[in-house]
Structure formats: structure tokens, C-alpha cells
Amino acid sequence: MKITIGLKWLLVLMMVFGVAPVSASDPGIRSKEEALKRALEFPFVPDDAVLTYSAQSKDAKGDTVWDFTLQRSYPDSEDFPAGSYSVRLRSSDGAPRQLSVSDKVLDREYGQQPAGDSKMDAAKAAEIAGTFIRGLDWGLDADWRLNPYPDSDSGNVPDDRSKFRVSFVRFVNGIRFPGDGFIVYVNPDGTIFSYAMNWSAGPFADPIGIVTQSKAEQIFRNNSRPVLYYLNLEKPKLVYGQYLHTLSAKDGNPPPEWNFNPYPGSGKWKPIVSKPLAPLITNAKLTDKQMREKARRLLGIAGPHKVSNPSPGFYRFSVATKDPKYTLVMDVIYNLNTGQVESLGRNGNCYDYDPKSTGKAEIGENKARQISEAFIKTAMPAYADKLKETDFRKNSTGGTKPCSIYILSYNRVADGIAVADETVQIVISAGNGTIQAVESSLSQRSYPAKATVKISEDEAAKKLLSLYDVVLTYQRTSAGSLELFYTLMLKPSVPRFNNGRYGFEPVLDAGSGAWLNMDGDPVKG
Question: How far is CA 162 from the centre of its chain?
């Protein structure tokens, strides 16, 4: 089903196609007032919408842009917005870069008429939604097509399940662009209850010379190895999940940022230490004094300080600095049952007020890793033989005085196999080596000492891949460009359900070969 929106508004049409509605000598948008005037010219912004947000900034490409959000309320209530309309305009030529609309349709709007006594079903709802979109004279360069791939039953659905949710996705150059969509909710009587639309500007990569569909399917068949891991349940289940999801259409390679990282491969994951440093106690019964002292030593606080206890296991240390206007605050939260650290945080920029930051060279990756692993051994020794480093990256903080940081991520393993949703992340200053933040989601759950796998990796790979279509799509990269990728998408007939960190996808029981849901129960039907 293909829907092309009518072209009524010449000004908006010129803007959407990137043709500035000004002369070559016109400097574009010269003020906030002019930017807002142009935003209000979009047909989807109603006359009674009120400006609630405005800002000027730089986008990912360095262009100056204006952002506006307007809202309108129900006639009899200002507590809940009936519509929200966001517009991003490029200052240099007034061209729109992003548009977002969410509207609850009132009876007085759009001349909607009930469908009479005809029986409503999904096909009829889709027809009504398509007619509705075609009737909107918004002048957008958008080829909206009915989305054959359903969303998860746990995803974006209204509380009232009697309404039909009809999903459209934008196609560019005849290629699916899931970043832009149009959702329409249809009442059982055929009227439109609400809708939401998201549109963004290009440029879109040229599809000429990309890897063919058949070649992409072959690459998936030859390289799709499953991920073996434990579902994090009261009774853990060992399952296979799909690893490879995305290929670059330019060269057929799997970009790491779009797939599970690192590649699990065959064999087992090795934790940071091979033997337990301490038993995992589930009834530690540490006194307040003991935990407070553990926290002080962990933070290396030897001089004057103040400490408070906002809640059980939570200790806040305040340390004076040379700057009388600044106090260093460090928070530590312990798990009361195990005595292991669950989180740590320190305020301020990681270079500020630290006598060690004297312009010396930053610490290297090896040193950062040593600091991180030493912290784990000290703060959570019962898990040191259960954690495998899975990601290591350098980043920069924001703010007026940005500084470099190392971010190290760990995953819990059991007999060398990853456990879903049990992770630790540690942030370290690259300038002085101080630990800035720690977040842990480790549980007290025990896992089998030896994993029992009956379904082979090859068999699991074939069964998992059989559930997916290989679809050519446009995706926006971290650099902001719109590139072409081949993406695995669950076939419309496959059940959708939540599996924690691995998303709304089926998993395969590594023991029985049955398809499991988020509770580890076999999927029926």
C-alpha cells in the first residue's frame, strides 16, 4: 500500500524539498521571530497551539538550527495536551530538519464521519487510516506505506485495546526508513482517535552500487552465529538469541555498533579473575559502623569529612576543598544482604578541585583497566570471578570544563556464559584516574556451575535465522548521516514479546529447542 500526501502548500513544499523560499541573496532565518513565523506556517500546527519551548543550537553537522514545540489543550481542560507539534528549522535557508506531530482528534476536526454499522477489523481500520493521511494537505515529501511488521504486544499500544493501531513507515527511493513513521489510532466506529507522525530530512545515501539482496542473505546465512546466554529468571534458562542483525549495504560488513559487541564466537568468556575472592553472602548482617568504615576506606578519605546516611546502605561523604565555594560529595550505596557496592557517584567535573590535575599526561588504557579491576576486587569481591569486560571506550564529559573519561562495561558470566541484565559499568577520569561513577545490576541469584547445552550452535543458528526477513533500510548513524543497511526483521507471523536487554524477540531453549517468552515459558501457537 502506497500513500502519497497531497501537495497543496507551495511554501511548505519548497521548504521540504530543500528549496529555500527566499532569494539567493536572502540570509535565511535572521531572528527568533522569523523562525517562529515559518514554523507556524506548517499546516499541521493549529491556530490555538501555544509555544511551550524554543531554542537555538547546533545540530550534528554543525548547522545552526531553531527548535520549537507548540501544544494545544482540550477545550475544557488545560491539564493534558490534546496535541504537540515540534519543528526544527535550519537557519541558513529555513529548511525543516525534523518534524514531529502528536494529536488527539476532536469530533469538530477534520470532518470525520463514523463508518456506520459496518464491522470494523484491522483491514478496514488500515483503509480508514490511509484515507485520513491522504486527506492531510501537509505538503510533505513523504511516501508513507503500511507497515507489515507488527510491533511487540508490550510496546506502543493505547490502554484501550478496542482502538485499532495502524502503523505506516516512510519509504525513500523505494527503501524502508524506519526512523520516520505515521501512527493512526482508529475508533471502532471508524473515526480517528489520535495520530502521531515523525519526519526528518536527508540527504539519503545513493543506493547505486550496494550489496545485492541475495548477497546479503548469503552473508547472514554464513555468519549468523547465535548468542548463548542465561535468561535472568528465578529459575535461570539457558537460551540462544540472534547475534548478527545488521550489515552495511555498502560493503556487507557487520558494523559493531549495530550488533552485539563483542562477537561471542565459540568457546567461553573468561572473567577478570579465575578463582573466587570471597563467597557470595546473602545474609551479611554488617552493622552501620562497619559499612560506613568500608565506604570511607574505599573512597580513600583520611582527612576531615562529614558523612550522612540518607537511607539504609546509602552513605554520603562531604569533603572540603581549597575552594570555599565547593565541597566534594561522594555517594556510596551498598547491598544490605551481600555487603557489595551497588553504586558510587562523585559530584563535579573530574578535573576540578583535584590537586593531581596539574597538566600531566592522561592515564592510558592499561592504567584505567587496572584501576577498574582493582575497584571490583575491593568493592565487590564476591563477583570478581563472575565478571567479564565487554566494552571499553574513551569519551568526553559535557559542561563548561569537559574532560576525558574511560567507560568500562562488564557482564556477569556463569561457566563462561553471559547472564542477561547483570552488568557493571565503571567511569574513570582519564586525567587523574579517579573513579567518577559506578552502576551495578548484579543479582544474588546462583547459576549452574556447569552449563547443559543440547541444541548445537549450527542448529540454533538455522532455526533463529528462519524467523527473519532480510530488509534493506535507511538508518541514521551516530554521525548523523543516513546510510543503507540490510537489517533482520522478524517475520510478521512471529510472536513479539520482551526478552529484557535483547529486545522484543524470540529465544531458543538451548536444552529443549522450544521457543521461549520473557518468563522462560514455551511460546504457544
Answer: 29
Q: Which residues contact 428 (CB under 8 A, 6 or more apart)?
A: 363, 368, 371, 372, 405, 406, 408, 434, 435, 436
Q: How far apart are CA 373 and CA 433, in angstroms?
A: 13
In the predicted model, what is the mean pLDDT of the chain?
82
CB atoms within 10 A of CB 41: 15
Written as nine digits, the cell of 111 is 470532518
The CA distance from 83 to 255, in Å, is 38
Contact yes or no for 94/22 (Cβ under 8 A): yes
Residue 199 contacts residue 170 (beta carbons within 8 Å): yes
> 343 is written with which cell numbers?
553504586
Tell me, rounded to whole angstroms, the distance of Cα 184 from its chain centroid.
23
Average pLDDT for 404-413: 92
pLDDT above 90: percentage of residues in the chain? 49
Strands 227-231 and 417-429, by their bridges, are parallel
Bridge-based pairing state of the strands 227-231 and 507-509: unpaired
Q: Specify the pLDDT at position 174.
A: 95
Burial 282-316, CB ≥16 within 10 A → b, else e: eebebeeeebbebbbebbeeeeeeeeeeeeebbbb
Q: What is the predicted pLDDT for the residue at 355?
A: 44
The beta strand positions in 187-250, using DSSP E, are: 192-200, 227-231, 237-241, 246-248
Within 13 Å and on the Cβ side, how many CA atoms surround 285? 1
Q: How many Å apart are CA 182 and CA 132, to the nearest integer?
A: 11
**21 vs 309, residue with greater confidence:** 309
User: What is residue 389's predicted lDDT score, i.e. its pLDDT?
Assistant: 92
| 3-class state of residue 162 by DSSP | coil
pLDDT of 17 over the 60 cut: no
- In Å, what is the CA distance from 5 to each residue of 183, 248, 376, 396, 477? 15, 31, 57, 43, 27
Grid coordinates in use for 327? 565541597
**DSSP H/E element including 81:** strand 77-90
How far is Cα 363 from Cα 429, in angstroms, rounded to an integer?
8
Q: How many secondary structure helices (H) and strands (E) does the chain include?
A: 7, 24
- CA dihedral angle for residue 359, residue 364, residue 367, residue 369, rounded to 10 degrees: 130
| Residue 272 DSSP one-character state | S
Assign residue 513 a region (left: φ > 0; alpha: ψ between -120 and 50; beta: otherwise): left
Q: Which whole number is the average pLDDT over 120-145? A: 91
pLDDT for 43 equals 92
Q: Do residues 89 and 97 lie in contact, with contact meaning Cβ atoms separated by under 8 Å?
A: yes
Alpha-carbon span 345 to 337, nearest angstrom: 21
Euclidean distance between CA atoms 155 and 136, whole angstroms: 27
Please report which confidence band the pLDDT of residue 397 belongs to, taking 50, 70 and 90 as the band edges: confident
